[in-house]
């Protein structure tokens, strides 16, 4: 398994799993307009995932994009743990998405400068959507945080709970370092300062308190996940597992 293949797979996996989570909001949004918005974000994430899976399949040479999405087990996925956690209430989803959207915006901005032309093109294409995702989640976070006393308390509780998954976004391992030295990968650690600025400014407007760093979850890059991923895959992969290689 080449480093570039694994790196590409990691990006695709995070997009796929978050897209699956967002698809759960279809027909469940708080308003019709928001229901459509959440569904469209889900489609955006699936589209991004497909682009990176297609490239990963090309690099692998033996598996298709569908194989990579629907025929791998839990320990073979390398997504951020944050994207696995349950949607919860609407405010909880907006907290999770905002923290991840802020990272994605910075990540894709840098990846668009990659020496790997395919990764750079996929990042540039995805960036147009990611900018909207960040605007959407940050606006809702401010609206909820600076809303009623109850909405503020709910999103603050969500922020406190989800914060443990933020440090993993900026981790670098041997694959990241190898490809960074080749001019291909993004220096995740270097994104932290800008991410802090975006997060701190938004939390201030939302009248929310930034949690202290305590226990921080890790392991997604190594195939270690929360208890939620297995349930996501069981639902997402059911048809392909039940009817292998079925064609529509």
What does this structure look like?
The protein has 248 residues and is an all-alpha fold. It has one domain (3-242): Ferritin, core subunit, four-helix bundle (Ferritin), CATH 1.20.1260.10. Helices cover 63% and strands 0% of the residues. It has ten helices and no strands. The protein has helices spanning 3-23, 32-60, 65-70, 90-111, 117-145, 149-162, 174-181, 192-205, 228-236, 238-242. α1 (3-23) packs antiparallel against α2 and α4 packs across α6. The radius of gyration is 18 Å and the shape is globular. It starts with a helix and ends in a 6-residue tail after the last helix.
List keywords for this structure.
0% strand, mainly alpha, 248 residues, 10 helices, Ferritin, single chain
Looking at CATH, the homologous superfamily is: Ferritin, core subunit, four-helix bundle
Order of helices and strands: HHHHHHHHHH
Based on CA inertia axes, which overall geometry fits?
A: globular
CATH topology: Ferritin
Overall strand count:
0
Mean pLDDT across all amino acids: 95
Quick recap:
This protein is mostly helical and 248 residues long. The chain has 10 helices and no strands. The chain has a single domain (3-242), classed as Ferritin, core subunit, four-helix bundle (Ferritin, Up-down Bundle), CATH 1.20.1260.10.
């Amino acid at each position: 398994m080449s480093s570039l293949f694994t790196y590409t797979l990691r990006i695709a996996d995070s997009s796929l799993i978050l897209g699956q989570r967002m698809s759960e909001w279809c027909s469940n949004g708080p308003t019709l307009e928001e229901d459509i918005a959440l569904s469209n974000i889900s489609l955006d994430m699936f589209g991004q995932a497909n682009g990176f899976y297609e490239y990963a399949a090309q690099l692998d040479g033996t598996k298709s994009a569908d194989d990579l999405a629907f025929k791998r087990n839990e320990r073979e996925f390398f997504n951020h743990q944050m994207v696995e956690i349950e949607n919860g209430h609407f405010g909880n989803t907006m907290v999770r998405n905002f923290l991840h959207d802020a990272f994605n915006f910075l990540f894709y901005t840098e990846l668009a400068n990659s020496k790997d032309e395919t990764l750079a093109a996929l990042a540039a294409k995805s960036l147009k959507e990611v900018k909207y995702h960040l605007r959407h989640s940050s606006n809702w976070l401010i609206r909820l945080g600076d809303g009623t006393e109850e909405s503020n308390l709910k999103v603050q509780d969500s922020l406190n709970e989800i914060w443990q998954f933020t440090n993993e976004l900026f981790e670098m391992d041997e694959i990241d370092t190898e490809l960074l030295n080749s001019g291909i990968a993004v220096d995740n650690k270097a994104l932290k300062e800008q991410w802090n600025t975006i997060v701190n400014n938004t939390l201030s407007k939302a009248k929310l308190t930034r949690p202290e760093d305590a226990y921080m979850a890790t392991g997604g890059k190594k195939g270690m996940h929360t208890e939620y991923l297995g349930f996501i895959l069981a639902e997402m992969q059911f048809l392909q597992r039940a009817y292998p290689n079925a064609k529509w």
